[in-house]
């Protein structure tokens, strides 16, 4: 329990985006260090103040009315919602921001969480692009005039101007690519914020409500009720831990901190051991059937392969109904070790299949099932490190087959 709490504290304390929670009256009750640095205040100066302390002076009155309206009809708002927003620092200076909002109820009182990103750098890029565009248009006009009036006499000058035009076009292309990359990064951050806010809220609410109800069952004959709520707390904490493990795995992969440790091992035994470990997650009546073909010894990274199998098998269990069969087959054929996991679950549409190995992507028919959308993305990253490949075949409401292939000897 302490380990998961420390993960949550670290996620809050070291987040690069600002994070603010306001109470029912719009007063700030929680703020992280990034938000304090962004606005030039200390946490002590902001706690208890209304959120309007961070709004430019000429927007304060209208913002109060907007805040009251939002509390009466709350709706989540993601990053880049089309609003031109600005924040005000303690020294009175203003800067452009993007803000995502989400709400939750606690003790019948509404609280609002805000994730804030300083987009000053992006605005500078956009201004530079506009300036470059104007310069490009000016040079293009000059080039047309020179070609019309002095086509023969100033051929050398025309060549020089063409070279300048090419350089300006190249500069504009580079600026455009930089802006596209930043927008893509902000979209990923927005999806992460939206997903994390939703996924963390549900288990945390379960822990809080079950912990509160535990105190009501004090007599000895109410032990079954206590055990039921303790079980709910354990399940919620495990789910939180799984979420954090996914985020930490992705972070290590992005930072290049994950390397392969090669050794010879028994492929069949590794698959069987992993299945034994996953049996505890099976729903009522679910059954895993396993078969192996060919030799059993391969040379690869056993821990990485086990993590790949856990992700794929847990998906098969999660997205299948009770009393369904999951078939796992492995084989060593020539220079390849091949493992397939086939379920009889909800399946995946052709439209979603192309995006399943992307980070934070979840199929439209899986939105109500717990998960981060990182599992298959992490699988793909691990397979890249092992020199392997993944193939996914699926049909809606019929099931999904995931087949991975890795070198039998590295």
Topology:
Blueprint: H1 2-13, E1 18-22, E2 28-31, H2 33-39, H3 43-46, H4 60-72, E3 85-88, E4 94-106, E5 109-118, H5 120-149, H6 155-214, H7 223-254, E6 263-266, H8 267-278, E7 287-293, E8 297-300, H9 302-318, E9 325-333, E10 336-342, H10 350-353, H11 375-386, E11 389-395, E12 399-407
Parallel strand pairs: 7-9
Antiparallel strand pairs: 1-2, 1-5, 3-4, 4-5, 6-8, 9-10, 10-12, 11-12
Q: For the residues shown, what is the average pLDDT? A: 78
Q: H/E series, N to C?
A: HEEHHHEEEHHHEHEEHEEHHEE
Query: What about the largest sheet?
Result: 5 strands, antiparallel
Strand content: 15-25%
Widest sheet: strand ordering: 2-1-5-4-3
Helix content: 40-55%
Low-confidence stretches: 360-367
CATH superfamily of the largest domain: Histidine kinase-like ATPase, C-terminal domain
Number of domains: 3
Terminal-residue CA separation: 39 Å
Shape: flat
Assign the structural class, choosing from mainly alpha, mainly beta, alpha/beta, alpha+beta, or little secondary structure. alpha+beta
Structural summary, described in words:
This protein has three domains: 1-118, Beta-Lactamase (2-Layer Sandwich), CATH 3.30.450.20; 121-257; 263-407, Histidine kinase-like ATPase, C-terminal domain (Heat Shock Protein 90, 2-Layer Sandwich). 50% of the residues lie in helices and 20% in strands. It has eleven helices and twelve strands. The protein has helices at residues 2-13, 33-39, 43-46, 60-72, 120-149, 155-214, 223-254, 267-278, 302-318, 350-353, 375-386, and strands at residues 18-22, 28-31, 85-88, 94-106, 109-118, 263-266, 287-293, 297-300, 325-333, 336-342, 389-395, 399-407. Strand 3 (85-88) and strand 4 form a beta hairpin. Helix 8 (267-278) crosses helix 9 (302-318) and helix 9 (302-318) runs antiparallel to helix 11. It is flat, with a radius of gyration of 28 Å. Residues 360-367 have low confidence and may be disordered.
């Amino acid at each position: 329990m302490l380990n998961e709490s420390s993960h949550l504290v670290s996620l809050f304390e070291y987040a690069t985006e600002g994070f603010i929670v306001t109470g029912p009256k719009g007063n700030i009750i929680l703020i992280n260090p990034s938000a304090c640095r962004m606005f030039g205040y200390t946490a002590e100066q902001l706690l208890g103040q209304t959120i309007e302390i961070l709004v430019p002076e000429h927007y304060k009155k209208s913002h109060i009315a907007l805040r009251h309206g939002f509390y009466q009809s709350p709706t989540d708002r993601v990053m880049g919602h089309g609003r031109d927003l600005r924040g005000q620092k303690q020294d009175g200076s203003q800067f452009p921001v993007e803000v995502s909002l989400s709400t939750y109820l606690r003790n019948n009182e509404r609280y609002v969480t805000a994730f804030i990103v300083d987009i000053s750098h992006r605005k500078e890029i956009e201004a530079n692009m506009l300036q470059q565009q104007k310069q490009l248009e000016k040079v293009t006009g000059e080039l047309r005039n020179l070609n019309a009036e002095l086509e023969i006499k100033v051929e050398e000058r025309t060549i020089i101007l063409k070279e300048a035009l090419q350089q300006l076009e190249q500069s504009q292309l580079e600026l455009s690519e930089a802006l596209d990359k930043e927008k893509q990064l902000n979209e990923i951050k927005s999806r992460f914020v939206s997903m994390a806010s939703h996924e963390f809220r549900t288990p945390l609410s379960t822990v809080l409500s079950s912990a509160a109800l535990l105190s009501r069952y004090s007599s000895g004959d109410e032990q079954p009720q206590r055990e039921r709520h303790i079980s709910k707390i354990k399940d919620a904490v495990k789910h939180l831990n799984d979420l954090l493990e996914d985020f930490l795995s992705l972070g290590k992969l992005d930072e290049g901190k994950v390397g392969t440790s090669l050794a010879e091992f028994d492929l069949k035994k590794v698959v069987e051991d992993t299945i034994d470990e996953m049996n505890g997650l099976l729903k009522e009546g679910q059954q895993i059937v396993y078969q192996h073909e060919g030799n059993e010894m391969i040379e690869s990274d056993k821990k990485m392969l086990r993590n790949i199998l856990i992700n794929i098998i847990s998906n098969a269990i999660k997205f299948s109904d009770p009393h369904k069969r999951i078939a796992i087959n492995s084989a060593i054929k020539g220079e390849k070790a091949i493992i397939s996991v086939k379920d009889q679950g909800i399946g995946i549409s052709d439209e979603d299949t192309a995006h399943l190995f992307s980070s934070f992507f979840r199929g439209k028919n899986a939105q109500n099932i717990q998960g981060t959308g990182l599992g298959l993305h992490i699988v793909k990253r691990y397979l890249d490190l092992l020199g392997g490949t993944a193939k996914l075949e699926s049909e809606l409401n019929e099931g999904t087959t995931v087949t991975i292939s890795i070198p039998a000897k590295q």
